[in-house]
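Async update (no meeting this week)

Hi team, since we skipped the sync, here's where things stand on the single-chain job. The sequence we agreed to prioritize is pasted below, unchanged from the tracker. I ran it this morning and attached the output directly underneath so nobody has to dig for it. Comments welcome in thread, and please keep replies under the output.
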Amino acid sequence: MDNERQRARYVSNTEGAPPVPPAGGYRGARREAFTPPPPAATGLPASADSSAKSSNTLGWIALSVAILFALILLGTLVAGGTDLLYGVTMLAVQLVVVGTVVAALFSARGRKLGAIALIITVLFNVATVGGLSALQTSASGNYDGVKTAEQKHAEAYPGIKGTDPQQTLAQQSLEEVREQSNSLFADIRERLTQEFGYTWTQVEDEDLRPERNGYGGESMLVTYSSARWATNEPIQDYDRKLEVMAAVNEVVVEHGLWDLYAFNDPSESGLDPTVVAKLYGSDDPRTQTTWEYYTENYPEPLRFYANIYDLSNDQDGGFLAEREAQNARTGEPLEGLQLSVLGREVLSEADRAEFETKLQEYPGY
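Output:
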């Protein structure tokens, strides 16, 4: 009874609603368990996953190829194979490497590895490593990889290309140039000390530098640079400078050299006054910081130089800075007279017999 009353109240307040099923439900009705729908797929399709793996593999390939190519280039550099670096094969391999790196850069998963490979390729390629190899080869003089047997033979030529070897044998030897230089210096020092009271300092020792033969090698000849001699006293008065150079000129003529020639005087050298001013501080010898006189004993190889440095004509301190730097390197006086001799392409008497023997291997040179 109570159920009927409750049913009646419920129905009376729900106009238009479908009738409530009878107690216990309709006859024959079945209850089915609720089955939730399957979860949505969260993974990538098989084709997309395969593509990602392929892209990542391409990045590793690009990085490996770049590293391997860099190692090959460095190995070639160490071996001194400059000619191999610029060969067609190496250039072709580099193109393959660049293509692989570019392909990796265009793939999403391989882009990071491709960027690393690109950096390695930029740092180590035919141009950069080849340039280093060329510098190394030039510094060491090791061009054996690209030289023919004829070139290697010419490289050992004892003389100098374009110079008659008989002229080399006929001219003063290294020892004769050295002896004449020492004698010349001694007489000049004695003359100027007697007349002007100058004292002297030797600047550096003599130096011998091998001469190139013009065929890629060194000849048996050398350039002789004498020790330099400098006065300890400055020479600043114009008339005194002329007197000193006149005395020096008399001595060099007595030793078989030609009269002194003034590079710093436009009337003697024929140089443009602007060039003279740039080289010697002024185009007027009266106000120049440097006087440079020269003579030689042509056709013999001795070349003589007499320079006067004068700080009293330095207007801006630039010349003083140059002289102080030179003094720090060599210990020479800041100003005064300096004497030096240069002997170009001279042969030592000790090497004369060997020089003549080797010349027999080079007929027509």
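Quick observations from my side:
Strands lie at 200-203, 207-212, 218-225, 228-231, 261-262, 290-296, 302-309, 336-346.
The radius of gyration is 46 Å.
Reply here if anything looks off.
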